[in-house]
Design brief:
Number of helices of chain A: 11
Number of domains of chain A: 1
Helix content of chain A: over 70%
CATH architecture of the largest domain in chain B: 3-Layer(aba) Sandwich
CATH superfamily of the largest domain in chain B: P-loop containing nucleotide triphosphate hydrolases
Largest interface: A-B, 15 and 23 residues
CATH topology of chain A: ABC transporter involved in vitamin B12 uptake, BtuC
Largest sheet of chain A: 2 strands, antiparallel
Strand content of chain B: 25-35%
Order of helices and strands of chain A: HHHHEEEHHHHEHHH
Strand order of the largest sheet of chain B: 6-7-8-3-9-10
Number of strands of chain A: 4
CATH class of the largest domain in chain B: Alpha Beta
Radius of gyration of chain A: 19 Å
Strand order of the largest sheet of chain A: 1-4
Distance between the termini of chain A: 56 Å
Structural class of chain B: alpha/beta
Strand content of chain A: under 5%
Oligomer: heterodimer
Distance between the termini of chain B: 38 Å
Helix content of chain B: 25-40%
Radius of gyration of chain B: 17 Å
CATH class of chain A: Mainly Alpha
Chain lengths: ~290, ~240
C-alpha cells in the first residue's frame, strides 16, 4: 500500500472517528450524571437520521439541519422524562432495563413508521464537494468532521468548567444530594445533559450518514455499541476519554478494512472492549472509584 | 423563626421521627442532642426538603414550607451543612465556595471576602482541590460554602464528627461568631458537652421523640443528661 492510499484511509478513519466521538460523548455524559448506560442513545442517533430525511424532503439544508438538531434534542429529553425520571430512586438495574426497552421501542417504531427498507440519506450539496490534494481526494464532510468534533468538544469542556450549568453538572455527577443542598435543580441539570448528548448525537448523525447514504431502523445499533465501547475505552464518565476512544475505534476500523480484514473490523471493537475490561477496567482516563464503607 | 409541629418522618420503612414539635427562635443557637439513630439527621434532612414528611408541618418565618423542594427552601434562607462535610473533592476551594451561592445572581465578591476572613486557612488554599484538604479544613469549607447562600438559618449535622478536639473547639468558636453576625443556628451533635455549652436552647431526642428541653446551661447540670450524654456517673 502506498503512502498516499494510507493517508487516504487515515483521513476516512479520522472522519469516522469524529462522528463516533460525538456519539460517545452522549454515553459518557449520561453515565457521569446518572450512572446509566443509555442504550437508547444509538437509536436516538438513528432517529436523527430519519428526521434529516424528512426535513430535507420539504426544506433546504440550512433549515433542515436546525430542525434535525431540535427534533433530536426533544426526543432525547422526552425519553429521559418518560423512561428514566420515574425510576430515579429505583435500583440502577431497573433504569438500565428501561433504557434497553426504549432502544427496542425506537427500532420498532422506526420499522413501523418508515419500514425496514433502507431510506436514502439526502445529500447536503456543499458537504459532498470533493477536494483534491495531489493523489488524495476527500469530500468536505470528511475534512470537516474531525475539525467540527474538536471545536464542539472544546466548547463543551469550556461549558462544563466555566459556566454555572457546567458547575451544576459536575456537582450532580459527583454528589447528587449535596448538589441539591446548594439549591441546584437536579432534574433540570439531568435534562441539560440529555440536551447536550442528543445535540451532539444529531451532529454526529448528519456527518455519519452523509458519508453512508442510507438509514434503516437498525442503523443506530452497531454504531451505538461501538461508541459505547469508545466511551468505556476512554474511561466512562470522561469526555476527553470518549473523544480519544471514538477516534481510536474509527481509525482502527477503517485501517482494518483497508488492509483487507473487513470481516473482522466490527469484531475488533468488541475485542478491544474485552481487553480493556480485563486489563484496565477504568479505561484510559477513568478514575478508580473506591466505594466507601 | 422555625416552627416544627408534630413532625413524622419515615426512613427506610420505619418511623424515624415520631411526632416531634420544637421551635428555633431568631438569632439563637439551638441544639438537638441524642444518640445515633435518634432521628436527628432525618429531622434536619426533612427541614431541608431532602425527605418528605409523613405528616406534621414545618414553618419558616411564618411561611409553611412542608414538603417544598430543596431549591426553594435554600432560596428562602435555610441551609444545611451535611454530616461528613461532603465538599466537592474535584473542585477547588474557591469553586466550592462559589457553588454555595448557586442560586444567587448578585455579586459574590464581598461574601467571598467575608468567608475568607472567617477562615483565613481557606484563602491560602483557594486554588487547591477540596479533596486534598484536611478534615478540619473540609469542615470549614463546608461551613463557608453554606454561608455563601446568605442563610438566615444554618443547620449543621455533626460538625465535630471525626475531628481532633482542638479543631472542634475552633469550629464551635466560628459557630458562635457566625451566630453573633446574625445567623440563627440549629445544630445536631453527639458531642453533647460542646453543643450544650454553645446552645441557648437544647432539645434531647431519643428514638424519634423529644424527651427533654431547656436552656443549654440547665441541661448541662441535669443528672440524667450527665449520665446519658456527658459520660458522668449519677451522683
Amino acid at each position: 500500500m502506498s503512502a498516499m492510499t494510507l493517508i487516504q484511509h487515515l483521513l476516512t478513519g479520522i472522519s469516522l472517528g469524529g462522528a463516533y466521538a460525538l456519539i460517545a460523548i452522549g454515553y459518557t455524559m449520561v453515565y457521569g450524571i446518572l450512572r446509566l448506560i443509555n442504550f437508547a442513545h444509538g437509536d436516538i442517533f438513528m432517529m436523527a437520521g430519519y428526521f434529516m430525511i424528512f426535513a430535507m424532503a420539504s426544506f433546504p439544508w440550512f433549515i433542515s439541519i436546525p430542525i434535525t438538531l431540535i427534533a433530536t434534542v426533544v426526543l432525547g429529553v422526552l425519553i429521559e422524562k418518560a423512561a428514566y425520571k420515574p425510576l430515579r430512586s429505583a435500583p440502577r438495574m431497573s433504569i438500565m432495563i428501561s433504557a434497553i426497552g426504549v432502544s427496542y421501542l425506537l427500532q420498532n417504531l422506526a420499522t413501523y413508521l418508515f419500514t425496514a427498507l433502507p431510506k436514502s440519506y439526502p445529500e447536503v450539496p456543499f458537504l459532498k464537494r470533493i477536494f483534491q490534494f495531489g493523489e488524495i481526494s476527500a469530500s468536505l464532510v470528511t475534512l470537516i468532521t474531525p475539525v467540527l468534533t474538536v471545536v464542539l468538544v472544546i466548547i463543551l469542556i469550556q461549558l462544563i468548567n466555566h459556566t454555572k450549568i457546567g458547575m451544576a453538572m459536575r456537582a450532580v455527577s459527583k454528589d447528587t444530594e449535596t448538589a441539591r443542598l446548594m439549591g441546584i435543580k437536579v432534574d433540570t441539570t439531568i435534562s441539560m445533559t440529555f440536551v447536550i448528548g442528543s445535540l451532539l448525537a444529531a451532529v454526529g448523525s448528519i456527518l455519519y450518514f452523509t458519508d453512508r447514504m442510507t438509514v434503516y431502523p437498525y442503523s443506530g445499533s452497531l454504531p451505538g455499541l461501538k461508541c459505547f465501547v469508545a466511551a468505556v475505552f476512554g474511561g466512562i464518565g470522561s469526555i476527553p476519554g470518549a473523544v480519544v476512544g471514538g477516534f481510536v475505534i474509527g481509525i482502527c476500523e477503517t485501517l482494518l478494512v483497508a488492509f483487507g480484514y473487513s470481516t473482522y473490523s466490527d469484531a475488533f471493537t468488541f475485542l478491544l472492549l474485552i481487553v480493556v475490561l480485563l486489563v484496565r477496567p477504568t479505561g484510559l482516563f477513568g478514575e478508580a472509584v473506591t466505594d466507601k464503607v | 423563626m422555625l416552627k416544627i409541629n408534630d413532625l413524622k418522618v419515615n426512613y427506610g420503612g420505619i418511623e424515624a421521627v415520631k411526632g416531634i414539635s420544637f421551635e428555633v427562635p431568631e438569632k439563637s443557637i439551638v441544639t438537638l442532642i441524642g444518640a445515633n439513630g435518634a432521628g436527628k439527621s432525618t429531622t434536619l434532612r426533612t427541614i431541608a426538603g431532602l425527605k418528605k414528611p409523613e405528616s406534621g408541618s414545618i414553618s419558616f418565618l411564618g411561611k409553611d414550607i412542608t414538603g417544598t423542594d430543596t431549591s426553594s427552601i435554600i432560596a428562602q434562607g435555610i441551609t444545611l451543612v451535611p454530616e461528613g462535610r461532603h465538599v466537592f473533592p474535584d473542585m477547588t476551594v474557591l469553586e466550592n465556595i462559589k457553588i454555595g451561592a448557586y442560586l444567587r445572581k448578585d455579586s459574590l465578591e464581598d461574601d467571598i471576602n467575608w468567608v475568607y476572613d472567617l477562615f483565613p486557612r481557606l484563602k491560602e488554599r483557594s486554588w487547591q482541590l477540596a479533596g486534598t484538604l484536611s478534615g478540619g479544613e473540609q469542615q470549614m469549607l463546608a461551613v463557608a460554602r453554606a454561608l455563601m447562600s446568605r442563610p438566615k438559618l444554618m443547620m449543621m449535622d455533626e460538625p465535630s464528627l471525626g475531628l481532633a478536639p482542638i479543631i472542634v473547639q475552633g469550629i464551635f468558636d466560628i459557630i458562635r461568631e457566625i451566630n453573633k453576625q446574625g445567623v440563627t443556628i440549629l445544630l445536631i451533635e453527639q458531642n453533647a458537652n460542646m453543643a450544650l455549652h454553645a446552645a441557648d436552647l437544647a432539645y434531647v431526642m431519643e428514638t424519634g421523640h423529644i424527651t427533654m428541653q431547656g436552656a443549654g446551661k440547665d441541661l448541662l447540670e441535669d443528672e440524667s443528661i450527665k449520665a446519658a450524654y456527658l459520660g458522668k456517673k449519677k451522683a
